[in-house]
Structure of Cytochrome P450:
Amino acid sequence: MVWSAFQVSVLDRFWDWLGTDHIIALFSRPWCLETSDTWRIAENLYIYACISLHTLALRYCHGHVRRGGLPLPPGPYGIPWVGNVIGLDVSQPWLTYTKWGKFYGGLIYSKMLGQDVIVINDEQITIELLERRSTVYSGRPVLVTNELFGIDFNTGLMQYGLHWRLHRKMFHAGLRAEVAEGYRPIQIDKARQFLRGLLKSPEHFEEHMKTMSASIIMAITYGYDAKPEDDPLVKKAEDMVKMFLTEITPERAALIGAIPFLAYIPSWFPGGRYRQRAMECKELAKKVLTEPYEFVKQHRVSASTVQKSMVSDLLDARNPSKEGQYDMEKEIMGVATTVFLGGAETTYTTLYIFILAMLLYPEVQHKAQEEIDRVVGCERLPDFKDRPNLPYIEGVLRETFRWHHTSPMSLPRATTESDVYKGYYIPKGEIRILTSIRAMTRDPTRFASPERFMPERYFDSPGHPAEKPFSHPFGFGRRVCPGRYVADASIWAGIVSLLATYRIVHAKDESGKVVEVKEEFDTGLSVCPKSFRCRFEKRWDGVEGLLSD
Ligand code: HEM
């Protein structure tokens, strides 16, 4: 068995070599090939075919023993090593997975550059596996970039085990529902700061929204009151998020995993840009981990009243006799920085998606504003005590999470044991389990006209019983988003405050023509509308007065 595994691994590497070098030449520059090249490629393809057949046979035997004869879930045929990458919409993979789902069903097996991938398109199957069998499906894939870039403190990337559990305990202590309720005054305060920003410079609405999301997180986590503009701590944390989203994507991690020497090319050598970026990220991570944490510690010593925050509560709750092998200061720093990485961008993009929806569906905006006017009036601004009386706003919030989810493929999972589901074999370990939130939220058997933004779907109407909102916008099982209560409340506060005070309308160009906005998105780990212009019109004259109170 060991020998066969060894052969598989040697052949895999040989395969990679043949595949990357020669096949790419054949497909990308065939007109440049000379006769001798063509012969060499033909020869290589012949060897490639023989080795592929040999390896397939080996894999078949090896896999068959491993799986006790059980089949893997159904899925598209791929070409050796490359797998199903060709034909995958790389920028919006959820579209391809949904297409495959129509043919193969809710559970699909595929292969991407040598990596086993299982895609789950169906909510019930996801609940069955990630919730009911959570001891098996709560892992995360090992990403070589975590250590390389100094981001192995991030709870969301950690392996399932004691270390991750310690982090989740701290999240529970700082962000569970009852504790999160205590942060509501901060959320309302920062939402109003956002509205004041709009009064001053409505054209910079993206910046104001970013500030709102970041400053809520900084206040909750560190008790730090971020400056509305150019705050040094926020700036560093945002740079880190940017790097995380652009440089440390799972795709890049997979590339480094497949071609490990990329990580070792010295930064001064051609091709060494990756190492250079990794070093920069490591340096930045050190600052983002320590600087706001030091702010909390200093304040605990010098200030007469300590601002309540997640970090200061965790420091208060420390019990050195129970800390065992862990350096708790380091762990608290890791958890706190994860809060920013997990919470700032997701809150911002969800608010952005809401603004896009209001521009494209003005009748929804109108109805939501009517409800606020009826319940809250114009003498004051809405607050959390109004929430139970604003069901249509609740529908708008649920629909924002459903219409375009900011993480359409959630975060990848890995198995910690092999499993059998409905007769299909699910291997242990280095397999990626992807849950397509996008496929679930756009399931036409569950949501009528799923591409439309329609909060009405959640209310009974003649001939149309209410649809149930998608109940997993924050993920599944043990690894469900620990920031869900805070996120839900921050976004509610942003939505209701904005709708109460401003009409969101199309911008006009210099000639007075309406600037059309399209439903277009920048994609990646998180999905955000492509930048657009719009106008924010005050809904009544007293808005300024209310905001200055
Ligand atoms: C609109 C806002 C947000 C959305 C849509 C969202 C969504 C998600 C999703 C889908 C996951 C993956 C869960 C899974 O694997 O099943 C996740 C994980 C996570 N989220 Fe959020 N999230 C949001 C805001 C936040 C906030 C505000 C925080 C922190 C305060 C946060 C912290 C985390 C962390 C730490 C994880 C990783 C959990 C783990 O691996 O154990 N998120 N989130």
Observations:
- Confidence is low (pLDDT under 50) at residues 1-33.
